[in-house]
Design goal:
Blueprint lengths: L1 E9 L5 H11 L3 E10 L10 E3 L2 H13 L8 E4 L5 H17 L4 E4 L4 E2 L2 E2 L5 H12 L2 E2 L3 H8 L6 H12 L5 E7 L7 E10 L10 E10 L8 H13 L7 H35 L3 H7 L8 H5 L6 H4 L1
The structure holds adenosine-5'-triphosphate, pyridoxal-5'-phosphate (PLP), magnesium ion (2 copies) and sodium ion.
Length: 315
């Protein structure tokens, strides 16, 4: 299995391809990282420096791969943070070509646009995701804000989340995972909603039968970055190829990914606590951000062998 992973790169820290590559490798995948940006660090630090890839530069890299016959081998394409409309358009063209050359390629799209009511990409990306890339995708992992952007209505109740899943299936993908939503009347908890439309062909119109699951867990206080990117990588590995995926496989994959996430976050919070507290006291924002970087390397054992988290621990 080999993944073309189109995401950001940071020199220091763990977001984008830095959060996805090592876990995917641990789980047995060859990974070809194509970096959409190269930044010094993630954008939650007081400053960051670096560059974004233009659509033409993306096409140049793809051309090199094509001329060497390297494009035919991917079992999966994974997309994450893309900062430029021209790059996202170029990704759509590439995905179309890869699907033609190898129809079994699984297309996994994390439609990274924002979080907690704030967009962190140009607004021109929304229609490209909604009307183009999702149509070409098999598996998508919006957070609740991204699900709201894609469907045009808030996702703050379980009923509304289920409706959003159906609306997003109608945009193309067979599997939709709303990675976390905080619901009205249930503060302090997060809910994952996932569904698979069964019975249709991988690329046909959405099948009428949609089966879903929900997993809930305690919301950790304080912010983490790279969680969505790590989560997408874990999901990709645990779901495998779209052609073989069943409802039972979806449910088991979501559980494993959530268990691993909760354990990585526990390890991160514990390791960060002391460091971050003293940095906060002196108001050193960079040291706080650094202290809160995901402990991905330190979590390698539990990434490789996900361990059940007692539902008490998730509750
Ligand atoms: P995207 O990258 O598409 O913007 P995201 O980063 O907003 O997505 P989240 O839904 O926030 O993705 O996080 C993905 C997973 O990480 C969740 O399903 C959950 O398991 C875990 N997670 C993230 N934040 C928290 C938190 N505060 N408490 C507990 N778990 C969390
Ligand atoms: N890529 C870059 C460059 C970022 O700065 C960030 C967040 O700051 C991310 C990706 C995504 O982080 P998350 O997975 O938490 O949405
Ligand atoms: Mg989030
Ligand atoms: Na997400
Ligand atoms: Mg994210």
């Amino acid at each position: 299995m080999s993944v073309l992973s189109i995401q950001s790169h940071v020199v220091h820290g763990y977001v984008g391809n830095k959060a996805a590559t090592f876990p995917l490798q641990l789980l047995g995948f060859d990974v070809d990282p194509l970096n959409t940006v190269q930044f010094s660090n993630h954008t939650g630090y007081p400053v960051f420096r670096g560059e974004r890839l233009e659509g033409t530069q993306f096409q140049t890299l793809v051309e090199g791969l094509r001329l060497n016959g390297l494009l035919g081998a991917y079992s999966h394409v994974l997309t994450g943070y893309v900062g430029r409309p021209s790059s996202l358009e170029a990704i759509c063209d590439l995905v179309e070509q890869l699907k033609q050359a190898r129809p079994s390629t699984t297309i996994f799209v994390d439609p990274v646009m924002g979080d907690e009511g704030k967009l962190y990409v140009p607004s021109e990306l929304l229609p490209i995701y909604r009307d183009k890339l999702l149509r070409l995708s098999h598996i998508v992992t919006p957070n609740s804000f991204e699900a709201e952007l894609l469907t045009g209505a808030p996702v703050r109740t379980a009923e509304r989340a289920c409706e959003a899943l159906r609306q997003i299936h109608a945009l193309g993908p067979r599997v939709v995972i709303i990675t976390s939503a905080e619901l009205e009347g249930d503060p302090g908890r997060l809910h994952l909603f996932a569904s698979i439309s069964e019975g249709g062909s991988a690329d046909g119109p959405p099948a009428p039968s949609v089966r879903g699951i929900t997993i809930s867990f305690a919301k950790r206080t304080g912010w983490f970055t790279g969680t969505g990117d790590l989560f997408a990588a874990l999901m990709l590995a645990h779901l495998g190829s779209i052609g073989d995926l069943t409802f039972e496989g979806l449910a088991a994959g979501c559980e494993k990914a959530v268990w691993t996430m909760q354990q990585v976050l526990a390890k991160t919070a514990e390791a960060a606590a002391e460091e971050a507290a003293s940095a906060e006291r002196v108001g050193d924002g960079a040291a706080v951000a650094r202290a809160r970087e995901l402990r991905i390397v330190q979590s390698r054992d539990l990434i490789m062998a996900p361990q059940r988290v007692a539902s008490r621990a998730l509750a």
